[in-house]
């Protein structure tokens, strides 16, 4: 009898479900036709399950289909399940009205069969929704990766690409961004630190690297996130807009290339510029290294180079002596000795820059060998 009056029962369901916030237009994309067709198929399935009637092939996957469709339509899961469980409130009174009084007591004892049928439907709707949500998440992740890849290989001037990437990442294209890289050896630690900082969404996999593109707070004083300085990674100069991210990424890759043996601390452009410059000098670097260092013997050169690096880093004879565990006069004597052997004075900024380039180039060459 319920199957014969199915249209009437569906109308009752539609009147009820329209009361669920966020389920129907204008706040939802689910149309009346869509909702009506789904309700018709779902209620017929439930009636057949309760009555032990044959299930047509067209109804076999309806529960899963409902969950998948509502997920695609971005209907909140809570609203979907409330709507599905409402089937019991619709079917139970509909059946009671069609049961003769003399068999009503026996029929009420079978109410559990209606609830079991509804739960059967709910479980499969729920599973379909979750499965489709997972598929959608993978699709979004794939699309994010595709757009990020296009952005990084661009010159940052394609406004449409910038807009699409910003939407996919959930950021503003005119925000500032911190770009950072972690090679494979440091990826696990980098990911754990990003998770602790609630920055997992800003991570992207690029070949064998983990790439961070983190939107920074809109403040006048732009600073790198503090957590980045606690893990081994390459921290690029801050990109002032999304359009500058490709340039920041290219700089980060070049910094990383200068540390072929790996990194064990946070590396910035400030700390890596010498290595990068020396790598770019080529034959000029060979000539500079010979001009500055050829008059220093190998045995003496190692001790002098160590002192020079510490002195250039600290700018202080006293601090250098403390770090080298020697007397400050020893540092002064070594700097003078280098000046005497080479003619380049470590205390003169121009000479100091040339000495650093020569030392860095010689170090790079020795490492490559």
UniProtKB/TrEMBL annotation:
InterPro entries given in the database record: CdaR-like_regulators, PucR_C-HTH_dom, PucR_C-HTH_sf, RsbRD_N_dom
Domain PucR C-terminal helix-turn-helix residue range list: 304-360
Domain RsbT co-antagonist protein RsbRD N-terminal: 7-144
Gene3D superfamilies, per database record: PucR C-terminal helix-turn-helix domain
Source species, domain of life: Bacteria
PANTHER family in alphabetical order: CARBOHYDRATE DIACID REGULATOR, PUCR FAMILY TRANSCRIPTIONAL REGULATOR
The protein's name in its UniProt record: Helix-turn-helix domain-containing protein
Lineage of origin: Bacteria, Bacillati, Actinomycetota, Actinomycetes, Mycobacteriales
